[in-house]
Design goal:
This protein is an alpha/beta fold. It has 3 domains: 2-92; 99-173, Roll (Ubiquitin-like (UB roll)); 186-246, no CATH class. It is built from 11 helices and 7 strands. A 5-stranded mixed beta sheet has the order 4-3-7-5-6. A two-stranded parallel ribbon has the order 1-2. A hairpin with a 6-residue loop joins strand 5 (139-142) and strand 6. The longest helix has 14 residues, at 2-15. Residues 249-253 have low confidence and may be disordered. One iron/sulfur cluster binds next to helix 7 and helix 8.
Length: 253
């Protein structure tokens, strides 16, 4: 906590922002809030604390700004705690960014943990640190079960951007059979980009790619929230990924 706040104070001296806000999840324990308040007082940093409800996806600045009730991402510079710790270490200890906090979990592991790992450490070493596998994993994914990438072997290294390593069991990766759309609208409610995934999927399956583009399919970030919400298990993201590949990528903040 002290390192996060110190790093933030350093950044605030450089950027001179009008306001500094610490965004904490709604369930942030009171004792940690007290520690945060004490660290802020010790560092002499004036900052407010805003609570927000965690939901996927909040990876992009616009999505986090919305969760915090900020007018938009354009006036806000959003920094992760790990970046602030790296800044603190670089300035206060002359230490290069050589370590990364990584969440290691998934149903195939004996236990889950947040580990501080040297960049370059094979992910197999992190799994060993968690007691190894309880059962053979079906997939090992880096970062997110919805949007992360699968790794081929345990020698893949931790990089500067690795946040999580997930050893997913067959039960966790099992795909339910697809059923017909029941027009429930759950995908529309889940989409942070205000798209209509149901309509886009229907258009793409009918070969109406131009109409899907006109309705904003290129804005899809591939977050997977619509497919996760869909009770009929329609593989919406796969349809959008293929379409975005054809129209030249995605658009986000
Ligand atoms: S994958 Fe695309 S369409 Fe689905 S919720 Fe995310 S942004 Fe919306
Ligand atoms: S969530 Fe699934 S079933 Fe419901 S409207 Fe969207 S595509 Fe159809």
């Amino acid at each position: 906590m002290d390192e996060v706040v110190d790093g933030c104070a350093m950044l605030a001296r450089i950027l001179e922002p009008r306001n500094v806000t610490f965004a904490v999840e709604a369930g942030f324990p009171p004792e940690r809030l007290e520690r945060l308040a004490k660290a802020l007082a010790d560092a002499g940093l004036e900052a407010s604390v805003a609570r927000f409800r965690r939901r996927h996806p909040q990876d992009f600045p616009g999505q986090l700004a919305e969760a915090l009730g900020l007018p938009g991402p354009s006036g806000a510079f959003i920094v992760e705690p790990t970046t602030l710790v790296a800044l603190h270490d670089a300035v206060a200890s002359n230490k290069a960014h050589i370590e990364q906090f990584v969440f290691v979990g998934g149903g195939s592991l004996k236990r889950q943990a947040v580990l501080k790992a040297r960049i370059g450490t094979p992910i197999g070493d992190l799994i060993e640190e968690c007691g190894g596998f309880m059962r053979p994993p079906d997939r090992i994914v880096v970062d997110s079960p919805l949007t992360g990438s699968e790794v081929a072997d345990l020698d893949a290294p931790v990089t500067r951007t690795t946040r999580a390593v997930l050893a997913l069991s067959a039960e966790e990766t099992r795909r339910a059979p697809e059923r017909a759309c029941v027009r429930c609208g759950a995908c529309v409610r889940a989409c942070p980009e205000r798209l209509d995934p149901h309509m886009l999927g229907k258009l793409l399956r009918a070969g109406e790619a131009a109409e899907a583009v006109a309705r904003g399919v290129a804005k899809c970030t591939g977050c997977g929230a619509c497919a996760y919400a869909c009770p009929s298990r329609i593989p919406l993201v796969e349809l959008f990924d293929a379409a975005r590949g054809k129209v030249g990528g995605q658009v986000h903040d």
